[in-house]
Write the structure tokens for this entry.
Amino acid sequence: MTNFKSDKVVTVEYLKSLREKNDVVIIDARGNMLEEGALMYDKAIVVDWTDISLLGEFGGEELGKLLSKENYAQIFNILNINENTEVLAYGFTMPEAGFGDEGRIVYTFEYAGLKNVKFVDGGFNLIEQLGFNKTYIKDEHKINTFNINRQEAENNYDAIFTEELLDIYNNENVQVLDTRLAVEYNGRVIYGENKAGHIPNSISVPFNSFVGNNGLLKSNEEINNYLSILGVDKNKLIITYCTTGVRASYVAVILKELGYKVRNYEPSFARYANVGEVTL
């Protein structure tokens, strides 16, 4: 049972109920973090966030950006997804593991026009207990997007990019949320960013702080109260960032469901650390 009430979040029991239903695609969003030989849901296909993103060099403007809708049409063809398909994504069970990659699937596929994409609350620890598992073989179970000629997304209104961010992040009607771990916010470099620290005046809201110790999302009321205590204002534009836009996507999806106006800084701190001022 999930505590978080949203059409975008479903239970493992719901996942199980779809086993005999046609036109359903299950995505294991653990992607490149999934070791060959590990267990995965038997009806899932593995997708890494890098399979469905523009990419580019680390610290560049392109790394965390989405692809064109034409590119996603090609990817959906590989995944056997059409406009009527129900898509469910799952990741590692937080708060101990994972980066909210299942939220990145929802964020991305909604941009591409899918109306019925959700993620499974509780992650793989709960899914594994259903007993419908197979052993991961990369060549058989992971999507291959190697031959796609990647083009940048257009009209990506749920995102924000560096030039605009630098113009508005100090605006009184804007709040910036750092969704990395607190140790990253406070100055630890984990992923090779050019600088330590955080965007000035940003608020630390670790992506996994929305999840309880049982691995399930906290309730809408608990998350709203937590954000209120941190000073996050529902009347302001919220901008989320992390390192490359994945954890921030997860938080953006949840905030949107809670009624916040939110945009995801897709290039995120890997890029910002090369061009902007930081605070420790």
Summary: The chain has a mean pLDDT of 97. Residues 9-141 form a domain with the Oxidized Rhodanese; domain 1 fold (CATH 3.40.250.10). Residues 246-257 form the longest helix (12 residues).
